[in-house]
Amino acid sequence: MKLLYLDCFAGISGDMFLGALIDLGVSEDALRAELAKLKLPGYTISTRRVVKQNISATKFDCIEASHPVMKHGHDHRSYTEIAGMITGSGLSENVKRRALSVFKRIGEAEAKIHSVPLEKIHFHEVGAVDSIVDIVGACVALEILGVDEVQASPPRLGSGFVETAHGKFPVPAPATLELLKGLPVQSSNEPVELVTPTGAALLAEFCSRFGAMPAMSIEKIGYGAGTRDLEKTPNVLRAVLGEATIAASSDADAVAVIETNIDDMNPQLFGDVMERLLAAGALDVFFTSIQMKKNRPGTLLTVLCERNDVDRMAELLLTHTTSFGVRVHETQRRKLSREIVKVATKFGEIEVKVGRLAGKVVSRSPEYESCKQAAAKAGVAVKDVFNEATRVAEETL
After folding, report:
1. Which residues does 163 contact at the CB level (< 8 Å), separation at least 6?
2. Could you tell me which of 21, 159, 168, 253 has the fewest CB atoms within 10 Å of its CB?
3. What pLDDT, on the 0 to 100 scale, is given for residue 128?
4. Helix (H/G/I), strand (E/B), else coil: 80
5. Residue 14 φ/ψ, nearest 5 degrees
6. Which residues pair with 313 in a beta bridge?
7. 177-184 long-range CB contacts below 8 Å, 24 or more apart?
C-alpha cells in the first residue's frame, strides 16, 4: 500500500502541499496538462528551488497572467460555480470527486460560520485562482503518485492575527478552526498563520490518521516551501512517501490511558464505577490486583478512552472512588480492521465479528449475545451455537 506521511511541523497550506508532492516526483508538465482540463483561464504555474533555514525545498507558485508578481486574489466565486467548473472539466472522476469534496468541506464550514445555505456561499480567498489550482492540483498530484493512504502529524497552528476578507481574526481563522474540528492539532509560538483554510481542508479530506510516523518503508522524501520566512522554524512541509508495512496497514489510533491505585475502597463499589465509566464512553475498564506501600493489597484501576474524554473520565474517577489523583498518558493502538457480518447456521443467522489485516481475514468471532439469543430460541447450549457459527464463518468468510 502506497503511504504518504505529512510532517506538519510548520503547518500546511495548499502551495506547500503541492510543492512537497512535486518534490516527491510529480512532473510539473503532467500537473499543468491536467490542470488545463479545468478550463480556468488567466494563470500560469511554476516551481523553483528555495532554501528555508538551510532546508532545500520546492516552492510552488500560481501566478495570475495579468499581474507581473504572484497574487493572492480575492475573486468571489460561489460554491455552485466552482462545483460546476470541476464537474464539467475533463479531469478524472476520482480527481473530480476529491476536489468537490474538499470544496464542499470549505463551503459547509463557511455556511456554518455565516449562517447561510451552502448554495449561497461565495468563497473569497479560497475562491481565488491560486486556491482553486492548489486544491485541484493536490488531488491530481496524489493520483499521479498513486497514493493509497495519507497520514499526518498534528499540524502546528501558529499564533497572532490574520487579515481575511471578513476582517481581522485571531489565528487560526474561523474557517480553518471549523475545518480542523475533530482533528488533533498543536500550538506554536510562531506569530503567524501556519495552517490556512486550504491546508486544513486538504488534511481533513485526505488524512485517515494523525500521529507519529507509521511503520513504513521509506522511498522518497519531499519538502514543499511556504511563502514566509519564520523566525524559529523552517517554513516547509515534509512529505514522506513509501510502502506501508503490515502494522501500518492495520487500523491504528492513539488513546488515553488513565490509571489510579486504590487500597481503601469497598470492593462492592468497583462495579458501580466500571458501569459509570463505560456508560460515559470509556473504551475499556479493568482492574488489576497490586501490592501497595505498607504491604497493603490494592487495585490498579485502568481506563482506556478517547483523548478528548480524559477530563470527563478523570472527574468520574475522582468523584466515585477514594482516589486522590490519577495518572494519564497516551498510547498507540494497532487494531484489525473489523466489521460485523451475519452467517446462516442451522440455528438461524448469527452475528460474527470479522477481523482483517491488510485486507486478509485473520479472525472470526461469533458475537456472544447473538449466540445466546439463538440458543434460547432453539433450546440448546450457547456453546453449540458458538461452535456452529465458528465453523460456518471459517468455511464462508
Report:
1. none
2. 168
3. 75
4. helix
5. -60, -45
6. none
7. 178/109, 178/112, 178/113, 179/105, 179/106, 179/109, 179/203, 179/204, 180/155, 180/204, 183/154, 183/207, 183/210, 184/154, 184/210, 184/211, 184/254, 184/307
343 forms bridges with which residues in the sheet?
350
Q: What is the CA radius of gyration of the chain?
A: 26
Residue with cell 495579468: 66
The total number of residues written for the chain in this structure = 397
Model confidence at 73, in pLDDT bands (50, 70, 90)? very low
DSSP letters, 248-266, are: HHSEEEEEEEEEEEESSS-
Q: State the CB neighbour count (10 A cutoff) for residue 364.
A: 19
The cell 487495585 sits on which residue? 299
Cell 449475545 maps to which residue?
369
Using alpha carbons only, give the angle 23, 71, 53 rounded to the nearest 5 degrees.
Answer: 45
Amino acid at 339: E
Helix ranges (DSSP H) in 164-206: 174-179, 197-206
